[in-house]
Design goal:
Layout (H helix, E strand, L loop, with lengths): L1 H22 L4 H21 L4 H15 L5 E6 L5 H9 L5 E6 L2 H9 L5 E8 L3 E2 L1 H9 L3 E9 L3 E4 L10 E4 L1 H6 L1 H7 L4 E4 L3 H9 L4 E5 L1 H7 L2 E4 L9 E8 L8 E11 L6 H11 L4 E8 L7 E8 L5 H12 L3 E11 L1
Parallel strand pairs: 1-2, 1-3, 7-8, 7-9
Antiparallel strand pairs: 3-4, 3-11, 5-11, 6-9, 6-10, 12-14, 12-15, 13-14
Helix pairs in contact: 2-3, 11-12
Length: 345
């Protein structure tokens, strides 16, 4: 049996190298279509064979991203390896020849893209349960980068530990604050008396847990696979409808194969007077523009002063949207247009 597996591995490598050789001779636009077909076929085949949808999507995405040729993109994401941001980056750029660059913080992702060391960056902006990621919105206010796209991931959390660990042996559970909050009820009911500590990321937590005894991490299937951890329990998030939305930041639009809608995002400030927010939003209501998100954020260095982050459906090249933005600019103290961009599925 072992020899048969080794023989299959060798044959697999030969086929991969042949695929890579053929890819180099194909026009990149044609190759994108071929890779899209390969992704869909491989993902469906793996799911039909019994692999989880998460693993199947990751494997198919990595396969097509690694073996694609022609674009040579460098994409930074909030790391380390095994993070949900990496999964989102693979999902978005799965048809391109991409080098993925993990970064230690959201601000670091913005910095490397601004400095030209990466073409695009992928960072979380909002979770369906825990709300917005403040650091991302703050960096959008400071940065010259635009939003080039957004995508979302279904967040499936798992309890992961060193192989051979039993649930009753867990004395400490670690993860990032968002994952711990999203599994709060599980921790309180199934891990009574277990100490809880915050880690910088879910993937870093998994990496630590796998190399230690008596420690379990809350993280993704991908992180467990990457770092050699054993999943003690699957799907421990308190609410199954748990999604995180990620934005792609950069200086130029991105090519997409699938987009379900175009949105536009802006940041603006208002005079501190009655009715100022109502007047700012009025042009959108009059033109029947659907607002998908609006929230206030504190302005750094100006206590009790706020900026507003707003997203709405439509492209700013559309006359209706352009007119609304023109009216908005007249009713605000400052206005920053962050771009119009596709939702990538």
């Amino acid at each position: 049996m072992a020899e048969e597996i080794r023989a299959l591995d060798k044959e697999f490598v030969k086929l991969l190298l042949k695929r890579l050789e053929l890819s180099r001779a194909v026009d990149r636009h044609i190759l994108r279509g071929v890779n899209a077909e390969a992704y869909n076929f491989l993902r469906k085949s793996l799911v039909d064979a019994g692999l989880s949808e998460n693993y199947a999507s990751l494997f198919a995405g990595l396969y097509t991203a690694i073996l694609s040729q022609g674009s040579g993109l460098r994409v930074a994401y909030l790391g380390p390896r095994g993070s949900f941001s990496e999964e989102a980056a693979i999902k978005v750029f799965r048809y391109a020849n991409t080098e993925f660059l993990p970064q230690s913080s959201i601000s670091a992702v913005f910095r490397v893209v601004e400095e030209g060391d990466a073409d695009y960056g992928v960072v979380p902006i909002e979770n369906s349960l825990e709300g917005s990621v403040g650091e991302t919105i703050d960096m959008l206010a400071e940065s010259t980068l635009r939003i080039c796209g957004d995508t979302e991931l279904r967040i499936r959390l798992n309890l992961i530990a060193k192989p051979g660990t039993k649930l009753e042996e867990v004395k400490l559970v670690i993860s990032n604050p968002y994952a711990l909050a999203q599994a709060r009820k599980f921790i309180e009911s199934r891990l009574k008396g277990v100490k809880v500590e915050v880690a910088t990321s879910t993937s870093e937590a998994v990496k630590t847990a796998v190399s230690s005894s008596g420690i379990a991490a809350i993280g993704s299937e991908y992180a467990a696979l990457l770092y050699g951890g054993e999943i003690l329990l699957h799907g421990i998030e308190d609410y199954k409808e748990n999604y995180t939305r990620f934005i792609i930041i950069g200086k130029t639009p991105i090519e997409v194969n699938e987009a379900t809608m175009i949105k536009t995002a802006v940041l603006f400030t208002l005079k501190h007077e009655p009715g100022s927010l109502y007047r700012a939003l009025q042009p959108f209501a009059e033109r029947k523009v659907n607002l998908t998100k609006i929230e206030s954020r504190p302005i750094k260095g100006k206590p009790w002063e706020y900026m507003f982050f707003m997203e709405f459906e439509g492209d700013m090249s559309n006359e209706n949207i352009s007119q609304a933005l023109n009216e908005l600019s007249k009713r605000t103290e400052s206005l920053k247009i962050l771009g119009s961009y596709p939702k990538i599925t």
